[in-house]
Write a structure and sequence with these properties.
The structure is a single chain. With about 240 residues, the protein is mainly α. Helices cover about 70% and strands about 0% of the residues. The protein is built from 13 helices and 2 strands, in the order H-H-H-H-H-H-H-H-H-H-H-H-E-E-H. Strands 1-2 form a two-stranded antiparallel ribbon. Helix 2 packs across helix 13 and helix 3 crosses helix 7. The two termini are about 45 Å apart. The model has no long low-confidence stretch (mean pLDDT about 85).
C-alpha cells in the first residue's frame, strides 16, 4: 500500500503515509504481467495434480492397510526410507528424467514427477488402519469388491484426512517455485510464483516496483488464506485422527 519512494526510505514507516490502492489496480493493468494466464496455468496444474495424487494416495493406502500380498511390509518400509533422501536429489534425478523424455516446457513436467507422496500415503494408511478389520471381512463375505468397500466405507470414514491431504497438496502446487522455474518457465506454461518473481521490473534499469509486486503477492495468496481459514478444522481433524 506504499509508493516506491516511501518503500525505499532508510528508516521505514510501519503504516503507509498515503495509502495507494492503485498498486492493486496496476497489478491487473500491467502489460508485463498476464495475471489471468498465470492464474489459469496454476489452477490447471494444481487441480489435475491434486486429483491424480489423491487417486494414487487412496489406492496405495488401502492396499497397504487392507490387502495381503507378498513383500507388503518390506515395500512399505522401503517407501518410508525414501523420506530420508534429501529433496535436492529427487530434483536432480527428476530433471534428468524429464529432460530425457522431452517433457521440458509442458504441463506434464509440472504434474507427473511429484504425484506420489509417501507422507500422504502413510498418513492415510494410518487412518485406514483404525477401521476394524472385521468390517472388511464381513463385507468380503457379503460379496463386496475391494473397490466398492473402499468407496462406500473407507473413504467416507477417512474423509477429514482426505480433505486435509487435498488442501495441503493444492497449497503445495500453488506455492511451487523452484521446480517450475527449472523445467517450464516459458510464457505458455509459467506459473503464478515465477510470473510474479520477474514482474514489474524495468528491463533497462533492472529496477523493480516492489510495492506493486507485493500487492500482486497479496492477491494470489488470498485464495489459499481463505481456504485455510474456512477448512482448517478438517486439517486438524485429519491429522489428529491419523495419530
Amino acid at each position: 500500500l506504499k509508493d516506491l519512494n516511501e518503500y525505499r526510505r532508510a528508516i521505514p514507516t510501519f503504516f503507509p503515509e498515503v495509502v495507494r490502492w492503485a498498486n492493486y489496480t496496476k497489478v491487473f493493468t500491467s502489460p508485463d504481467l498476464n495475471l489471468g494466464r498465470l492464474f489459469a496455468n496454476t489452477l490447471f496444474v494444481g487441480v489435475v495434480s491434486t486429483a491424480l495424487s489423491l487417486v494414487i494416495t487412496v489406492l496405495s493406502a488401502f492396499a497397504f492397510a487392507r490387502l495381503e500380498f507378498k513383500g507388503k511390509d518390506a515395500l512399505f518400509a522401503f517407501l518410508l526410507a525414501t523420506m530420508m533422501i534429501p529433496g535436492e536429489l529427487f530434483t536432480i534425478t527428476n530433471y534428468q528424467t524429464v529432460h530425457a523424455l522431452g517433457w521440458m516446457n509442458t504441463y506434464a513436467v509440472l504434474i507427473f514427477p511429484f504425484l506420489v507422496s509417501v507422507f500422504y500415503i502413510y498418513l492415510l494408511k494410518q487412518n485406514f488402519m483404525q477401521v476394524p478389520n472385521e468390517l472388511y471381512l464381513a463385507a468380503k463375505v457379503d460379496g463386496t469388491s475391494d473397490l466398492k468397500y473402499l468407496w462406500k466405507v473407507m473413504i467416507p470414514l477417512a474423509l477429514p484426512t482426505i480433505i486435509s491431504i487435498t488442501i495441503l497438496k493444492m497449497m503445495g502446487s500453488w506455492n511451487s517455485y523452484m521446480w517450475p522455474k527449472l523445467v517450464a518457465n516459458d510464457e505458455a506454461h509459467r506459473l503464478i510464483t515465477n510470473g510474479l518473481r520477474n514482474a514489474f521490473t524495468n528491463a533497462s534499469t533492472n529496477d523493480t516496483d516492489y510495492p506493486v509486486q507485493m500487492a500482486a503477492v497479496a492477491i494470489v495468496s488470498a485464495p489459499l488464506f481463505l481456504v485455510f481459514i474456512f477448512l482448517r478444522k478438517y486439517i486438524m481433524a485429519g491429522v489428529s485422527r491419523s495419530g
